[in-house]
Predict the structure of Sugar transferase.
Amino acid sequence: MQQIDIKSYNLAPIVLFVYNRLDHTKQTIEALQKNKFANKSDLFIYSDAAKNEESKQKVAEVREYIKSINGFKNITIIEREKNYGLANSIIDGVTKIVNEYGKIIVLEDDLITSPNFLKFINEALEIYKNEGKVYSVTGYSFTDNISDIESSYFLKLTSSWSWGTWADRWQKFKRDKKDLEQIISSSIQEKNLFNFDDSYDYVSMAKMQIDGKIDSWAIYWYLCVFKQNGLTLYPAKKLVKNIGFDGSGTHCSFSEYEDELVNFYPSFTKDIVEKTINRNVVSSILREKNKISIKRKIINKLKKHLSQKQKQILLILFSKAQLLFHKKDIGKNTYIDKTVHVTGWKNILIGNNTGISEYTWINVNKRLGDNKHIIIGSNCYIGRRNFFSSGLLIKVSDYFMSGIDCKFMGSDHIFKNPFIPYIATGTTIEKKIIIETNVWLGAGVSVIGNLTIGRGSIVGAGSLVNKDIPPFSIAVGSPCKVIKRYDFGAGKWVGIDEYDFNNDSLIPTEEEYANKLKQNFPNVIIPFVACGKNKGDLF
């Protein structure tokens, strides 16, 4: 979808809400003044009154400053005579301005915009004005470090960190605690969706709103749009950053300081739908962001008081504690050598009577809630120095055996743009590696990509598997090729040229084959002695 001539239509009014943070307000205004078309835009500034004696002087300083600014077509200042609070002030101000002008751009006093921000929001408001399912547009983005993503995209998630909307969409806004109570008491599936696939706890935010612990307009707006199945347009890179995480803001506790803005201008997507891949990418980023910010607070405190040796000891103890917490996900009579390195225990499931040999590395790349991204079945032997790096899923079924130095790589570094260092582009998370029942991989086999190795198959040493292998096959080479298959009509392994494909109907299903092996070999003797020099300290 092409950009349109911004001079051919009326620009949306900018509405800025300020309170008592002079330095933040100055940065916000100065960045806005540098925007293209700022001098052709009407600016409305809502200045809330002080809620206590301590804030009066700071509010007065902000009001003195905003009376001195210029650089806009018209500037209208609304000074509240009593303290509205952020939520009431925004709801009141947005309602009045959007009803008068038909559209609106909304900012708060801790948002720094790029010079392209106004142009992008105005064009988006014009392009999607007749698309009823588009409820808002924003200059914020979660995907700065993701190169392999559309220039702009839609999510079923609103943003309060800069936004624009239209009068007919805002008319559906409702501030009713009964709606919040309804989502709180809804099904697990509904709450998971509202929590954006369990990536941020909006349900708890709704509870805090009901309990009076926060005063948020944004949770009501998000719920309104959520109930309408509405969309918000996001740019691939941030056109706005939040500087409010210094403790001075009303609700500033979510994240760390934002990265610097880049010189970026998005094109507009024609696909007016939330794509699953975009939702998965953003929800994964949100999960990591929330988790990291809590971790980092703890780490930063510990760094001040611990020596390097103490930090190393603490890291070991923390790893052991994590393992004990997730011991329920490790089967009975399973041996994991003490040299095995694991990241992401809560996203790993290992069956009964399985041995994982020394110096194996098991790494969960993207952790989506409590989903299991690496699953290793029962009666399995994982050879020494194996390497597992998951995308969406690596599933190793029962009776699996691997030789030394095998690798399973379910994620790739994104390489769309060669002018960005590949180490900095992030990784894909969509791929699944499925290894069916009773598969044997020789030493040094590499399994890469989105594929299935069929049940009963054997892969020769040193092979590269980068595509599906059919059931009951022998494959070798780099990339590997099937050279033999088990012919159920002949009852023997035969060369691929001799194989009778008419006998494919005789091949047992995965379930049939697995059940047969479990019936005849419920517990095989796993060579735990080959897993390591010493008995592991975990099990």
